[in-house]
UniProtKB/TrEMBL annotation:
One of its GO terms (biological process) is secondary metabolic process. SUPFAM superfamilies: alpha/beta-Hydrolases. Keywords: Glycoprotein, Signal. This is Uncharacterized protein. Belongs to the peptidase S10 family. PANTHER family: OS02G0687900 PROTEIN, SERINE PROTEASE FAMILY S10 SERINE CARBOXYPEPTIDASE. Gene3D superfamilies: 3.40.50.12670, alpha/beta hydrolase. One of its GO terms (molecular function) is serine-type carboxypeptidase activity.
Amino acid sequence: MESPLLLIVSLIFLRLFSSALSSSVVTHLPGFQGPLPFYLETGYVEVDEEHGGEFFYYLTESENKPTEDPLLLWLTGGPRCSAFCGLVFQIGPLKFVTAEYNGSLPSLVYNPYSWTKVANIIFLDSPLGSGFSYSRKYEGYDANDTIWSEQASKFLLQWLVEHPQFISNPLYIAGDSYAGKIVPMVAKRILDGIDEGKEPLLNLQGYLIGNPFTGENIDENSKIPYAHGMGIISDDFFECRLKPLPSLASTTSGKRILKENQNILHPPPFPDPGCRCYVYTLAYYWANNNMVRKALNIKQETIKEWIRCNRHLSYPIEPKSNIKYHLSLLQRGYRALVYSGDHDLMVPFSGTIQWVKSLNSSIVEDWRSWHVGGQVAGYTITYSNNLTFATVKGAGHTAPEYKSQECLAMIMRWISGALL
């Protein structure tokens, strides 16, 4: 932990280089009954002064000891999928009630397996053009891996200007899917800034990535051998049967009210209500409601339509691989958790374990099962460079969406330094 003098110097340094930040505490959300049983803050941080680009974020404080528990900066994949996915589908304290859409506002309930049981989490809409993050000039939407990692690290430093109480908390950079490629790049930028004395001495402890891309060929090349090895996989892992979109021009008053309060330009098709991905479409109708935008304090005239994953903006893949960033961090002793759903065909765990092995670290604890509630929850292996790899049994892409209880147990054990 930093000394009081060093902390003051760090804050002064940050304020000299800070940009605009706005934030609001959210106590109630449309669709959720009663006050939120956890602390939620939303806001913006400017990350591109030239083009007027601002990242939107959701902060959920730890439900345990927020002043002591780790701070996670959570990035969502895509690229350009909203961090709201992490908040309501994966590791956050909210989830949608899975019910067939009838024109009324989708309902939210508390998620008892939220990672806020052990950590403070910043869910960050990034890069620009994701979720509610925006740029006032179109040129600001130009992005690639390098730009994304630069702006994400800039966001974190500027966010801490207004949240100095978190500077001494253990810091982890985290994310899943395509963001698994960006996470070690952000962590390495923070480490470089610390080494060069250009940034405050943040309490960086490591990083964690789930179902992660690397940019290596192994991500793609492992798909066919994995599928062959699995034999038969349920159709639910690949696609959902579509049905016609229900009309919002219904004569029921509830549907008329909702239509008048929506910002929807291109409504997505509804999958079958029994499909796991049905909640993705519910999120679309929830986040585009005007009452919701007001509750979240979304700036007017910034994002016309919230899209779960924005595929309309170009995104060159650059650099091709992130393996060197893993090596740089692990060689310095930073902790890393890499986890995969063992039923993920998008980024098969068999390919992930291959690049993990290519880091050439000796094994501390060999391949073994780990358990939750007396049942096998997956398999894990621990390496001498503070790297832990784990599979989550029966989980797809991404693991917490399928096995929330098991993934909470996993993160609780790993954060505490215990074996899975």
